Amino acid sequence: MEKIINNVKKIIRVVLYIRVSSEEQARWGYSLEAQKERLIEYCKEKGYKIIAIYIDAGKTARTKIKNRKELMKLVEDSKNDKFDRVIIWKLDRWFRNVADYYKIQEVLEANNVDWECSDEDYNTTTAQGRYALNLKLADAQNESDKTSERIKFVNKSMIQSKRPIQGSHCFPMGYKVVGEKRNKKVVKDEEKEHIVNDMFDSIETTMCLRQTLIYINEKYDLTIRYVNMRNCLTNTLYYGFYRGVENYCPAYITKERFNRIQDILAKNSKKNKNKFNYIFSGLVRCKSCNNSMSGCTHRNIRINKNGKKTINDYPYYRCNKANASALCENKRRLSQNKLEKWLLEHFHDELAKEIESIESITEKNKPAKKVDVEKIRAKIERLNDLYIIGRITKEKYESDYKKYSNEIESASIVKEEVRDLSKYKEILENSTALDIYNKLNDNAKRVFWSNYIDYIVQDDVNEFKIIFK
Q1: Nearest to 317 by CA among 331, 300, 301, 327
Q2: 2-145 sits in which CATH class?
Q3: Full-model pTM
Q4: Do the beta carbons of residue 456 and residue 285 sit within 8 Å?
Q5: What DSSP letter does each residue of 200-252 carry, written as one string?
Q6: Dihedral of alpha carbons 36, 40, 43, 45, sign
Q7: Where are the CATH 3.40.50.1390 domain residues in the chain?
Q8: Which pLDDT does position 415 carry in this prediction?
């Protein structure tokens, strides 16, 4: 199948999209392999060139778009002119939700990518075709909604019967699922039971979540994170309550003890009443674990000999993995004032180095001679003609077509890799920019740095490394 692009006949480049949920594969036999074989056969019949295959395994029709990773990758690749068409088996493999469909369709259309089904006749080129498509999507969405309602009803019945609807991995530490089919139940995990009991004893003894976390991690050689420990201690399963059902599983503690622990956790949660605006929020990374460092405030209260009290707040940044979970060795605090002072003194020099580096790389990547894309397209057109009349073999055609396509693609890549340095040069040439900076409020300062900096890492005590955008 040929397609006319810029007056050049070209073999249509296609990608295959395959989706199947675990339930569908088990019940109806919609296996990934069966779909793949059918789509490859279809493309051979049509003369399409397959560029890539995207497979979302174990994803239901109601899975959120953002969780269909391969679909998201397909959409991103469509922006880079990697293919011309998407081939799917049936429409319900693509979407069953009208709103989701049009979100993706808008992106594909903007990048001149269309799609078609191998085993169903749908199109978006005519008003009648779009009307039929909308009807089909509406029916598919309705069927999907009914299936979802049935699943919810079954799940509710299973919970009422104290049967698990998920596997062991979905339950908190200290529980596991045993049995088969209708005899499944949630029981205590004897291998971790002592850890859970120790966790509850520790939080009541120390009255501190952080100390409990460090104690459990060190004693049992674990790497539980702060937020995960908190989630455990607030999980009602530990006193046997789950989704409105009492005695759903064996309890570790009583409800009264659970409520006492919730009071302890509430006291551990300190709200920042100062509402401090951190200038480098999201821009500072830990030098040891590369984790984003969080803004905190140290309040210094002084009372002079006359009894007058002065309060000063000093913002700083710290690694939460080191502070809360003891999973990082970097316990050093980074002063915001020190970082800001260093940036104001070194920003121009670091920016000049960045511009020089980018321009040097760009110069090296320039082709030795100018690529005449139109001449290469003319060669491709002659190549197509020779192949059609049988003057060259299929192997020769594919080899030369790939060579010419790579030449065009290389020319495009060189052009795309040239970064726009105008905003960097503008701030570098503006001698008053940093003077104006001192008049900005904290929010405006944060916007200023975010416009140029991707992130900052503290190399040494007084030295930093800037990664520009």
Answers
A1: 331
A2: alpha beta
A3: 0.42
A4: yes
A5: HHHHHHH--HHHHHHHHHHHHT----HHHHHHHHT-GGGGT-BTTBTTSS--S
A6: negative
A7: 2-145
A8: 45
Q: What is the pLDDT of residue 417?
A: 47
d(CA 377, CA 408): 8
Q: What pLDDT is recorded for position 137?
A: 67
Q: Tell me the catalytic residues.
A: 21
pLDDT of 15 reads 93
Residue 187 has a pLDDT of 92
Nearest to 228 by CA among 359, 324, 309: 324
Going by C-beta distance under 8 Å and a sequence separation of 6 or more, which residues neighbour residue 305? none
**Backbone dihedral region for residue 290 (phi beyond 0: left; psi -120 to 50: alpha; all else: beta):** left
Are 297 and 311 in contact by the 8 Å Cβ rule? The answer is no
User: How many other CB atoms are found less than 10 A from the CB of residue 90?
Assistant: 16
Per-residue pLDDT at 132: 67
Residues of the chain with pLDDT below 50 are: 5-8, 24-29, 272, 274, 414-417
Domain 175-268 classification at class level: alpha beta
Q: Which ranges in the chain are annotated with CATH 3.90.1750.20?
A: 175-268
For residue 216, what pLDDT is reported?
92
